[in-house]
Every structure is written in C-alpha cells, then in structure tokens.
Amino acid sequence: MRSEPVVEPVVEPAVEPVVEPVVPEPGSPPAPPPLAVRDLRIAFGGGVDRVEAVRGVSFDVAAGEVLALVGESGAGKSLTARALLGMAPRGAHVDGAVLLSGSPVTAAHRGRRIALVPQDSLSALSPVHPVGEQLAAAVRSVRKVSRREARARSLAALDRVGVPAARARAHAHEFSGGMRQRAVIAMALVNEPAVVVADEPTTALDPDVQDQVLAVLAAQREATGAALVLVTHDLAVVRQHADRIAVMYAGRIVEHGPARPVLDRPRAPYTAGLLASLPDPAAARKTRLPALPGHPPAVTDIPPGCAFAPRCPHTTDRCHVEVPALRALDDGRTLACHLEHPA
C-alpha cells in the first residue's frame, strides 16, 4: 500500500501593514532617534566592594549614522555595547536608560529592532546546524512566516552579503573567517533592525578581508538605513567608516564629536595620545613609535580625579582630585578635561 507523501501545510506569510510616513506638525518635537543612551552605568558587587565599569555614558545615534566607540582594552566599549542589547553579564547592576525610538530596550527587541554583529563569529554560529538554517530560524523567531518564506529570506540575506545560495547548506566550520563574518552580518540584518551593534567585527581578519567585511556592513547599513554602533580599537577603520566618534577611557566618554575633526584635531590628551601612537607610512622605517606611558587602570583601581591623570603629560594638581565633567565645546564636540585650551 503506497503511502501518501507528507506535504508541509502552507502558512501564508504575515502581511505587514504599510505604514505611511508621519509628517510632524509644525512646531512639534522631533522624533526620537533610533538609539538614545542616557547616563548608562554598569557596576559589579555591592557595598564597599562595588566597582563601576561603565560610568555615566550618554549618546544618540541617528538613522543611517555610524558612531564608533573607541579606546584601549578595558575602556568599557564591549560592556557598553552588550548593555545596549540588554545583554550585560550576569551579576551586573545596570542603571540609566537605553531607548529605541524612545522606548526602553527589552529582550523582545533583540533580533527585531536591535541586533548584534559579534566579535567571534565562530562562537556565535551553531556548529551543528547549516548556516542557512540558522538564519531561517532567526527569521521565524520574530516573524510569523512559513518555513519556505523563512528560507527565502535567509537566502536573500546571505546573497546580499556575498554568500552564494549553495553555501547555505554548509556549517560554520566549513566557512573561512571572512565568510563567517559575512554570515553573522546577514543574521544581524535579516530582520531589518533599526539599530545594529558591531562589536570588533574585523578582529583576527587579515587587512583585505577586513576591508571586504566593512564594505559589506556599510552597504547593508546604507540599504536599510540602520543606525550603527561600531566598537573598535582601530582608528584607521574609524576614519574610513564613522560619522561620529566617542572615545572611552576607564568606563567614561572623554571626547565625543564628528569623526573627522576629532581625528584631525583631538582635544582630549588621551585621544591625542592614541592618534600619536599610530604608524606613519611617511616616517623613516626605523623611527620609534611614540607610546602612551603606563596602562589603563583596572576597574577595581580607578584613581581619584581624572582617571587618565597618571598617564597624562599635561596633568595639574586639580586633575588628581576632581573628576572632569563632560562639557560642550564650540565646535560641536564634548570633552572631559580640566585644561582650559586642550590640544
């Protein structure tokens, strides 16, 4: 007796309503940005053992804009990035506000309105499921669509980042590092989030592959209009891809403003020190690179006053006792430094 073939029931894709653009009334307040961070603080422990790893970070990111968070290891960049998605480490005490278009971020927003491009693509992808299947599962986790529609969306997302449809059946270990990073970009963007957080997305990739991955990320951001927070220590990447830059040190933003002015004429001594330590292609080959003295402080041992004071060449007595407030300058940037006319 012949058995009838099993036919997967057809589930009609959810019809997404067409939303007409809202034209604000004259004099009405502007729409909130896709991402707004207000006085973000992340601490560990309690009582006398309480330590703050992120201390009062605030910024906005507009639609289609790239904000780069830069600084040395331990500055609090990745911890800030994770907190934007509600993914702070277990045991962390998070205060302040992270707002998506004016609404507090929740776990339900991850993958739908805000998404992460992680640093380690191999750990981010399942080793036992084909890459295309993982993207389809990401689609179905936030959209009521059939498996067929989810597969179609996943293949389209992979195609947009340059991964051939035939590779959708491959597993993560069968991809090169660059192809894996393209796959996690596709996964982050498959549901067209309004905000994308890319945490060191080119770590451990060679320069050519880095350029390819960043070009893919830029093209997808331009196509979708997503706001992008780019976490990196590579100032060359920042110069090429960022609209604005926030320089972090010891859990605080010490300089924040349009990328080109900050990079061409840094006002914070820490920013100036970072830029001075970059290789100069025009310099003689045996020229010794200047380096910032000392090391960033551990979160358990942040000095009083300005945290950068022990390493700063322009320090005064005030710097060792008073934490500098982040103040607005007349050129559109903000700065945390006691110097009256820094840099």
UniProtKB/TrEMBL annotation:
PROSITE patterns: ABC_TRANSPORTER_1, ABC_TRANSPORTER_2. GO terms for cellular component: plasma membrane. Keywords: ATP-binding, Cell membrane, Membrane, Nucleotide-binding, Transport. The keyword Methyltransferase does not apply. It is a peripheral membrane protein. Belongs to the ABC transporter superfamily. This is ATP-binding cassette domain-containing protein. It comes from Streptomyces boluensis.
